C-alpha cells in the first residue's frame, strides 16, 4: 500500500478529464489520497494535451513551476500523463529533467509500478499504446465534479487521420468499450444521483462493439434511465444514420443538441483537411437534423488559416456558419503539429496576422449569431437541470437547457440536481437569464409543461 497524497491537473478535452477520473481510481485503489492543490501533494500529475501549440506551452510553463516546488521538496514526484507523453518523453526526462515519470494514455494501469520505480530512484516511463485498452472494468472516481453531470468514455483513439490533427498519434487506434461495462457505469451513476451523462469518444458515433452500434447504445442507455439526460461528444459528420436522429427526436431524455464539427465551409479545404465530406454533404446533414429534430441546437469546431487557405475559402467558412446559425462554436487558429500529414506534406503558409484576422472575423460573426439566437429564446419555457450556484452569486443557480444553453435563475427553494422548469426573461451572447416556474422532471415536462 502507498498512502501518499496526489493531485492531478488536467488539460485538453473532456476525454482527458474522464481519463483523470480513471487515474484517480487506480491511485485510490493503492491507498493514495487525492488532495485539491499541488502544494499539498506528494505526487503531482499533469494530464496533458497536444492539440495546439498553446496547449503544450501552458503545460511546459506549469512543469517549470513544479520544478521550482521540487527544489524545496526533494521527495516530491512530478509526472506527465496523456497526449504529450509519447512525443516529449526524452526531452522531459533526460534533457530538461523536469519530471520523474511519463505515462501515455493507454498505460495508466501501470502507474503503481512506475511510482515504485521512482521510489527506487529511477525515472519511469510507459508510453505504449494499445489496441484493446478501454479501462472498461475501472469505475472512474469523480473527485472534482458537481455530482450532477458526468462524462462516460465509450471509446478511445481515432483512425480518421484528418491532416491537421495529432490525436491519432497521441491516442492510437480507435477501439470501443464493451457496452455492458458502459451500462454498468451509468447504472452506478444513477444510483449515486447523477442526472446527466455525456458519452465521450473522438468519433463517438462510430462506436461499435460486437453487434451494438452507437444508435443501439443510446437506445439502451436512455430507455434504462428515463430521468437521466444524455448528451454525446464528438460525433463525426461522416457517420450519422437517420435512425439516430429519429431516436433523438423521439426520446425526451436524449438532448436536442448536437455538436457537429465542420472544421471548414469550403469543399477544397475539407479535401486538404482529409475530412471525407463536402460543404454540400455537410449542409444536407444539417438540413436533415433540423427537419427530423425540430428546434435542435447545433454547435461546431472551426479552424481558421489552415495551409493554403484562400480568402475565398475563408469566406466559404463564414457563409456556412452564417447559414447554419450555430448556437455555439469552438474556433481556433491553425497550429501545425509534428507527424501529421499537413506537417509532412503542406506548408504552414498563412501568416499569423492573417490567421488572427480571419479567426477574429469568424468569432465576431458567431457572437452576433448567438446573441440573435438567444434573443429568440426570450419568453420560451425550458427544462433546466440545476448544476450548482452561478459564478456570480450563491443566491442564483445555473444549469443548462436540453439544448445545452447556460441558464441562470434565482435560487428560491430549488436545489442543485433538480430539474426546474423556467421561462427565459433575458440574455447575453453566452447566457440566458430566467424566472423559475416549478420543480419538474423529464417525464412531467415533456408530457405537460407547468401552467403558470
Ligand atoms: N474528434 C473531434 C475533434 C477533437 S480535437 C472531431 O473530429 O470533431 C478538437 C478540435 O480541435 C477539432 O475539432 C479541431 O477543430 C481542433 N484542432 C485539431 N487540430 C488542430 C490544429 N492542428 N490546429 C488548430 N485546431 C485544431
Ligand atoms: Fe482528430 Fe479528425 Fe480524429 Fe477528430 S476525427 S480526433 S479531428 S483525426
Ligand atoms: Fe488534447 Fe489529447 Fe484531447 S491532444 S484534445 S487531450 S485527445
Main sheet strand line-up: 2-1-3-4-5-6
CATH architecture of the largest domain: 3-Layer(aba) Sandwich
Largest sheet: 6 strands, parallel
Count of alpha/pi helices:
14
Shape: globular
Q: How many separate domains make up the residues?
A: 4
The helicity comes to: 25-40%
Any idea of the CATH class of the largest domain? Answer: Alpha Beta
Class per helix and strand makeup: alpha/beta
Strands, total number: 21
- Beta-strand share of residues: 15-25%
Low-confidence stretches: none
According to CATH, the fold-level topology of the largest domain is Rossmann fold
Instruction: Write out the distinct hetero groups bound to the structure.
Output: S-adenosyl-L-homocysteine, iron/sulfur cluster, FE3-S4 cluster
- Classify the oligomer: single chain
Structure commentary:
This protein has 452 residues and is α/β, with parallel strands linked by helices. It folds into four domains: 5-126, Rossmann fold; 145-255, Transcription Regulator spoIIAA (2-Layer Sandwich); 259-375, Transcription Regulator spoIIAA; 381-447, Beta Barrel (OB fold (Dihydrolipoamide Acetyltransferase, E2P)). It is 36% helix and 23% strand. Helix 11 packs parallel to helix 13. The longest helix has 24 residues, at 352-375. The relative contact order is 0.08. Residues 12-13, 15-16, 49-51, 82-83, 166-167, 170-171 line the site of FE3-S4 cluster.
Amino acid at each position: 500500500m502507498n498512502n501518499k497524497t496526489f493531485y492531478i491537473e488536467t488539460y485538453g478535452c473532456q476525454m482527458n478529464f474522464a481519463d483523470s477520473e480513471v487515474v484517480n481510481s487506480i491511485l485510490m485503489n493503492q491507498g493514495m489520497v487525492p488532495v485539491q492543490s499541488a502544494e499539498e501533494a506528494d505526487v503531482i500529475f499533469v494530464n496533458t494535451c497536444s492539440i495546439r501549440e498553446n496547449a503544450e506551452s501552458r503545460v511546459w510553463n506549469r512543469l517549470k513551476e513544479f520544478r521550482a516546488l521540487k527544489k524545496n521538496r526533494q521527495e516530491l514526484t512530478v509526472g506527465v500523463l496523456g497526449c504529450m507523453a509519447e512525443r516529449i518523453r526524452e526531452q522531459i526526462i533526460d534533457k530538461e529533467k523536469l519530471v520523474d515519470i511519463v505515462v501515455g494514455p493507454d498505460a495508466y494501469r501501470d502507474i503503481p509500478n512506475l511510482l515504485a520505480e521512482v521510489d527506487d530512484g529511477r525515472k519511469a516511463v510507459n508510453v505504449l499504446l494499445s489496441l484493446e485498452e478501454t479501462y472498461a472494468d475501472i469505475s472512474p472516481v469523480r473527485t472534482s465534479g458537481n455530482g450532477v453531470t458526468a462524462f462516460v468514455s465509450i471509446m478511445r483513439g481515432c483512425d480518421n487521420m484528418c491532416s491537421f490533427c495529432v490525436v491519432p498519434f497521441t491516442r492510437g487506434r480507435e477501439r470501443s468499450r464493451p457496452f455492458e461495462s458502459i451500462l454498468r457505469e451509468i447504472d452506478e451513476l444513477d444510483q449515486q444521483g447523477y442526472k446527466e451523462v455525456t458519452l465521450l469518444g473522438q468519433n463517438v458515433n462510430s462506436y461499435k462493439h460486437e453487434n451494438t452500434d452507437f444508435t443501439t447504445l443510446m437506445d439502451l442507455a436512455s430507455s434504462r434511465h428515463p430521468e437521466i439526460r444524455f448528451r454525446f461528444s464528438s460525433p463525426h459528420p461522416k457517420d450519422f444514420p437517420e435512425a439516430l436522429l429519429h431516436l433523438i427526436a423521439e426520446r425526451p431524455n436524449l438532448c436536442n443538441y448536437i455538436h457537429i464539427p465542420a472544421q471548414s465551409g469550403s469543399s477544397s479545404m475539407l479535401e486538404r483537411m482529409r475530412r471525407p465530406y463536402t460543404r454540400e454533404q455537410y449542409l444536407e446533414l444539417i438540413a436533415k437534423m433540423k427537419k427530423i429534430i425540430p428546434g435542435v441546437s447545433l454547435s461546431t469546431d472551426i479552424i481558421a488559416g489552415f495551409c493554403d487557405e484562400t480568402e475565398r475559402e475563408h469566406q466559404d467558412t463564414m457563409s456556412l456558419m452564417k447559414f447554419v446559425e450555430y448556437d455555439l462554436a469552438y474556433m481556433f487558429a491553425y497550429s501545425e503539429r509534428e507527424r501529421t500529414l499537413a506537417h509532412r506534406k503542406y506548408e504552414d503558409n498563412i501568416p499569423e496576422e492573417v490567421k488572427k484576422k480571419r479567426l477574429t472575423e469568424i468569432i465576431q460573426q458567431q457572437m452576433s449569431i448567438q446573441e440573435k439566437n438567444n434573443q429568440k429564446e426570450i419568453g420560451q419555457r425550458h427544462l433546466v437541470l440545476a448544476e450548482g450556484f452561478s459564478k456570480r452569486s450563491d443566491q442564483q443557480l445555473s444549469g443548462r437547457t436540453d439544448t445545452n444553453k447556460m441558464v441562470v435563475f434565482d435560487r428560491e427553494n430549488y436545489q442543485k440536481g433538480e430539474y426546474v422548469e423556467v421561462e427565459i426573461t433575458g440574455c447575453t451572447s453566452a447566457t440566458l437569464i430566467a424566472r423559475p416556474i416549478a420543480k419538474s422532471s423529464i417525464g412531467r415536462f415533456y408530457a405537460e409543461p407547468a401552467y403558470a
